[in-house]
Amino acid sequence: FLIQFKKKKKGKILDKNSTPKKINYQRDKEMTSMSEEALKEEAKSELKLLSLEHVCFNKDWVLRLNPRSQIDHFICLICKQIANSPMEISCPQHEQMDELLIVGEDCLNQYLKDHNNSCPIAPHANCKYSRNRALQRLVGDLTVMCPRQCMQGGQQTGNETEGESETSGIIRCNFQGKLKELNDHLSNDCSLKAIDCWFKPFGCNQRCSKHNLNDHLISSMKFHFDMVNQLFQSMQQTIQSQRGESNQLKSEINQLRLQMKKMSKMQIQTNSTN
Ligand SMILES: [Zn+2]
Ligand SMILES: [Zn+2]
Ligand SMILES: [Zn+2]
Ligand SMILES: [Zn+2]
């Protein structure tokens, strides 16, 4: 997911540079700054989502759809959130402890790095730990709601259907699914996922949710039309100048033909006089 995100960012930068430079309306400038702001906003929120991949999962977010009793065993002892890639600490020093000693993989690595490889349970060297696959499976099976919806401050309604509902005009994502299926949802069918404006090939850098795209397409109709028109005109100019070049070539060829004819006539004449 991180790699995907990086690619996406790179793509964005490239696309910005490849935007036709000829188009230079005031509106265009306005739109660009607007969409840049949107891009920044989006990058910020995507970054938050991205952190889902590495650090432990936000407990409050998981608690929205799961009872506290069900998540008690998944708590990372370092950050007190839901352990991502749970690791079990099994140093002989803690053998008397009754509970499973669970930490998220990223939290553990960070802790060991920051504390000179000292164990996070009690300060000692040679911390022993291993991945707990059974727990990982259980965490992956937790039901969660769309984090984009969560960040919008949306409360989940009783509505259990998946997909988008557009009541009250605010777009929402009603996704509820397993934690392990979340990335697939976020990068594919999430209705809050930002998509490019249809007129991106003509230079519009607007990115918005599927629902807002309709509004953008309607409100920016003139802007889009001007962009397409500008491109059309510059293409027509190219065609015309190429037509001119080809006409000139044609006349040059004709002149050459005439000269060839003249020369061959002259040759026949000189041959016959000999
Ligand atoms: Zn953690
Ligand atoms: Zn230990
Ligand atoms: Zn979603
Ligand atoms: Zn647009």
UniProtKB/TrEMBL annotation:
Pfam families: zf-TRAF (PF02176). GO terms for molecular function: zinc ion binding. InterPro entries: Znf_RING/FYVE/PHD, Znf_TRAF. The keyword Coiled coil applies. Residues 239-266 form a coiled coil. Signal peptide: none annotated. It comes from the Eukaryota. Residues 180-216 form the TRAF-type domain. Keywords: Coiled coil, Metal-binding, Zinc, Zinc-finger. This is TRAF-type domain-containing protein. It comes from Reticulomyxa filosa.
